[in-house]
Design a protein that fits this description.
Radius of gyration: 24 Å
Shape: globular
Number of helices: 23
Number of strands: 11
Helix content: 40-55%
Distance between the termini: 13 Å
Largest sheet: 4 strands, mixed
Structural class: alpha+beta
Strand order of the largest sheet: 1-2-6-9
């Protein structure tokens, strides 16, 4: 697409990952790499570390313009599902008024046909960013999402990506929401780096996360939570049936949290912190409480702890009631069914303690024999290997995950070679969320460019 990064040092070029802390003059053990799970508070952290400003450095003016617009839209959509009051609509309004003025008060627009074309253009400039290219419509309407990806997202990928900081968007999706396994597979981070840096992710109770997903992706305040959850269940069919995690099939907000932090039953992100336990970092005296309660923030590396201290929460949306009051028995059961692995892996209780009137999904399943049979069949087909957050620790020392990191890379290499002997590896890749379409793109890039350029 034309533009390239300005010349940078060799060390800087080697650090192509979502860094919060990066300095080529210090060892990798002091660097901080953040895996951003959607709707878990990570945007506040990236803003706190000024990732937007850092991603602008060393770019051409049109590269800066592309990144600036990306972050502008990101901020606008965080504030409103359908942003009528925005810069784009102000431009459309100015275009509309100017067209009318030129027609009625000058001779520049000679006939009504030209005027009609200008008015239709201004209307399109208003409707697309305000109502069509928005999170609810793109995320929940498959034909719109694929049209947007094919017509806008993919062509402008290089215009709005920062590979060095792993933010923005490109052909692989929204870069700040790539899973750890994809970051490894696409070589944005190497197994050696992943083994030695401080990596972290923030997760939250799947029930409260679903409320955040609902507020961000609903069709306005008139859409009920019950209607949304049922529609969300259908949207996730590609993931439920084939574990598809490519944006073409499954929006990143649908993907369960453990897919961002685990691979093939093993945890590959060093520090997984629960959002609910960040309160223990507010004051120094709370550290003892964190240890007593075996909190996820009890034994964090210094780089991770320092990053989380006093972290702001800037994207919180106003609720009309407490989040647990949105649930009824049906939505509780559906949410648990969609994100059961998150409850198991991160140790969240399926019971909603704030709502004693609702049964635990486990109990509810026993009252529905058909659901119970399906649930047991899924567990027998692929038993879940529970991985604790301290899976990297052994007598205070970190256990190497290099073999796991390399296995992700081997899957990528096998699919890139495209040989017949790697068919089983490619099939395994699909089951882990790298769709055939994604791997076809990667193979094409691998054949046409050098690995780093790809």
């Amino acid at each position: 697409f034309g533009w390239e990064y300005k010349a940078q040092s060799h060390n800087t070029l080697n650090h192509k990952m979502p860094w919060l802390i990066k300095d080529p003059d210090v060892p990798l053990s002091e660097h901080l790499f953040f895996v951003h799970v959607p709707r878990c508070g990570g945007t506040s952290l990236t803003q706190h570390f000024e990732v937007q400003e850092k991603s602008m450095q060393g770019r051409s003016w049109w590269g800066k313009l592309g990144m600036a617009y990306f972050f502008h839209r990101y901020k606008v959509l965080e504030a409103s599902n359908f942003p009528v009051r925005s810069r784009e609509n102000l431009i459309a309004l100015a275009f509309f008024l100017t067209s009318l003025s030129l027609y009625f008060f000058t001779d520049i627009i000679p006939d009504e046909t030209v005027l009609l074309e200008l008015l239709v253009t201004s209307l399109i400039l208003f409707i697309l960013p305000a109502f069509i290219f928005t999170a609810p419509v793109i995320g929940r309407t498959e034909c719109v999402r694929r049209t947007f990806l094919f017509g806008v997202h993919y062509p402008l990928g290089r215009f709005m990506e920062s590979i060095e900081w792993c933010t923005g968007s490109n052909i692989h999706g929204y870069m700040m929401h790539l899973t750890a396994q994809k970051l490894l597979a696409l070589q944005y981070v190497t197994p050696h780096q992943m083994e030695h840096i401080n990596s972290m992710a923030i997760v939250r109770n799947p029930y409260s996360r679903m409320i955040s997903v609902y507020l961000y992706n609903r069709y306005g305040s008139m859409e009920s939570f019950s209607h949304f959850v049922k529609a969300w269940y259908k949207i996730m069919r590609y993931y439920r049936e084939r574990k598809e995690m490519d944006e073409w099939y499954t929006p990143c907000h649908c993907i369960p949290q453990f897919e961002f932090t685990h691979f093939d039953g093993k945890q590959i992100v060093q520090s997984v912190v629960k959002q609910e336990e960040l309160k223990f970092l507010k004051r120094k005296g709370d550290s003892h409480r964190a240890i007593v309660q075996d909190s996820t923030v009890a034994d964090l590396p210094n780089a991770v702890r320092s990053a989380l201290l006093g972290m702001p929460h800037t994207n919180a949306r106003k609720l009309s009631k407490q989040w647990w009051d949105y649930y009824d028995q049906e939505t509780l059961d559906l949410t648990y069914e969609l994100y059961k692995s998150d409850f198991d892996i991160f140790g969240y209780s399926p019971c909603l303690d704030k709502r004693p009137d609702l049964q635990s999904p486990h109990t509810s399943l026993h009252s529905n024999p058909e659901k119970l049979v399906l649930e047991k069949a899924k567990e027998k087909e692929k038993p879940l290997e529970f991985m604790r957050r301290d899976s990297f620790e052994n007598n205070g020392e970190r256990i190497s995950r290099l073999e796991t990191f390399e296995s992700v890379r081997k899957i990528y290499a096998a699919s890139r070679n495209g040989s017949t002997t790697t068919a089983s590896a490619t099939s395994s890749t699909v089951q882990r969320g790298f769709s055939m379409r994604t791997m076809a793109v990667i193979r094409t890039l691998g054949k046409t460019k050098d690995t780093k350029e790809s």
